[in-house]
Amino acid sequence: HGKFDNNKFDLITAVETIYFWPGPLQSFQEVYRVLKEDGKFLIINELIILSLLLVLLEQELHLIRMSLITL
Asked: Which of 38, 39, 60, 65 is the most exposed place for a label (fewest CB within 10 A)?
């Protein structure tokens, strides 16, 4: 866990920073952990960078699914 309590924030923003985050899946899991149940997560990025991030996240999720299948 990070330095914030679970379900702490109503709003989390990421403005032109998300492409610097280490490991998209773990980063999004941490955002989900600290975000209140009805909270909002706002990502503001250039479209091309966000598209690349989504591709990387999809690839990482696929690798996780594949590793679960082989267990």
From this structure: 38
